Amino acid sequence: MSRPIYERALGSDFARLQPELQEYFSLAPGSGHFGVGEGVFDVVGCRQRWLRPLLRLTTGEEAFFPEYGEQVPFRIENHAHLDPFGRSSLTTRREIFFPGGTRLFHDTTSFDESRSSPGLLDYVGRYRRLVTDLNLSVTADGRLRGVSEASRLFLGRLRIALPGALDAKAYAEQWWESTDGEHGRHRIQVKVIQPQVGLVLVYAGHFNYRLQEYPGGLTAPGHLPAYARPERWESRI
């Protein structure tokens, strides 16, 4: 079983994460398990009304969406696997249960060793047309922070590096929140900001998390359920 991609990306800093985060990010290909989280977003979606019609045009990508809500339930699944190119990866599938319907948000994060500086690449959406470099850090109190950098857009054979003026960056933070008694919960906050328009997307909330065995005890490193697979795998960086 290969090492978890977040441990590989963080190196010795992985041990500085809160213990509950270390457990959360320790899912690795071949473990025979996938992660399931269920919770509530305190806020989720696009706050800017004027931007929502534009986001409605992108809903087929299953990455951005025009709705905005508060106290919205959601479900998340994490699947660690090897992608078709042999890269250790983590595919995440989110279901967001807005009153008017469910939105899906997918991405696959892969550890890429082919570059001079190995690191994480995040492929976003149903077709994985958008890829960003993902830079991680650990705060003094053991939270995980992530910032997306240097986005590229894939359109057929075209590879388009987005200039800084057009690129949107995602700022994420995840941590474990202790509550009264023995229990606690995971918390996450993500903001996607575009220099010209400001805040494009936000979601922040809490969830409980558990590991679940794959049916039949599957432990193949390359296994990824059909419903979690992208429409297309993208090998370029």
What's this model, at a glance?
This protein has 237 residues and is mostly beta strands.
Layout of secondary structure:
Layout: H1 5-10, H2 19-24, E1 33-45, H3 52-56, E2 68-82, E3 88-98, E4 101-112, E5 119-124, E6 130-138, E7 144-155, E8 158-161, E9 169-178, E10 184-194, E11 198-213
Antiparallel strand pairs: 1-2, 1-11, 2-3, 3-4, 4-5, 5-6, 6-7, 7-8, 7-9, 9-10, 10-11
DSSP strand count: 11
Shape: globular
Largest sheet: 10 strands, antiparallel, barrel
The radius of gyration is: 17 Å
Give me the number of helical elements.
3
Q: How helical, in percent, are the residues?
A: under 10%
Please tag this protein with its features.
237 residues, mainly beta
Describe this structure in words.
The model has no long low-confidence stretch (mean pLDDT 92). Helices cover 7% and strands 50% of the residues. The two termini are 25 Å apart. The protein has a ten-stranded antiparallel barrel. It is mainly beta and 237 residues long. The protein contains three helices and eleven strands.
